[in-house]
Amino acid sequence: MDPLLDFTGKVAVITGAAQGFGKLLSQELAKRGAKLVISDINEAGVHQVADDIAATGAEVVAMKCDVSKDESCKAMVDTALEYFGRVDIGVNNAGIAHEFMPLHIIDESIMDHQFAINVKGVQFGMRHQIAQMLKQGEGAILNVSSMAGLGGAARGSAYSMAKHAVIGLTKTGAVEYGRDNIRINAICPFFTLTPMVTNFADEEKQKKMARGAPMNRLGEPKEIVAVMLMMLSPSNTYMTGQCIAVDGGVSAF
């Protein structure tokens, strides 16, 4: 196997793994030799993903995790230690969107929900992943932000606020823990054909969304996960504090 894509023996914890990026990344890491602890608020869904991965011969443990609860994120790391003895990779992927609406009608309940999952969920994950990686002397963390975290997102202000915060956490963590050999990066996708998009945008809406990208289409999950694999690669040892846009050219404007 190409060393760039060889994750043999690496232990990864991944949130939001019942669908979308989390599910596909779990499958791809398993193919490349990683041992996995995967979680989701959708317990039945994440156990089905784990069963499918285990059927290939890979080592995987599934569990329910509410990332808005610190103790739930700690339990993921504790589970990885119980089964595999370490945590090499942390992927803080779980997140939610909200309905498109103008900024002036976004109320506190929407903001609170966004921050509970999209911001606290990342910080709680990082907090316990980093604590273990400090003991090991190494590790790699990948947070899932968004193009809405790099710029404005019309009619998506609460989501944009939260995803900007993820970038702040990523950059701050990279600065604090670079000397400890812990790499912390974020990926920032444009609209991609995951359930987060397809469940609320019909084909006509998707076409309108695609017009915002020079490539005039939405992303495919496999295109985002390919970059996630590169960012997490054990051979990619000097990249940290980066927030990488995978956006069909949107950021070129």
Describe this structure in words.
The structure is a single chain. This protein is α/β, with parallel strands linked by helices and 253 residues long. 45% of the residues lie in helices and 15% in strands. The chain has a single domain (3-190, 225-244), classed as Rossmann fold (3-Layer(aba) Sandwich), CATH 3.40.50.720. The chain has helices at residues 20-31, 43-54, 70-84, 108-136, 157-177, 195-198, 203-210, 221-232, and strands at residues 11-14, 35-40, 60-64, 89-92, 139-144, 182-189, 243-246. It has a seven-stranded parallel beta sheet with strand order 3-2-1-4-5-6-7, sandwiched between helices. The radius of gyration is 17 Å and the shape is globular. The model has no long low-confidence stretch (mean pLDDT 96).
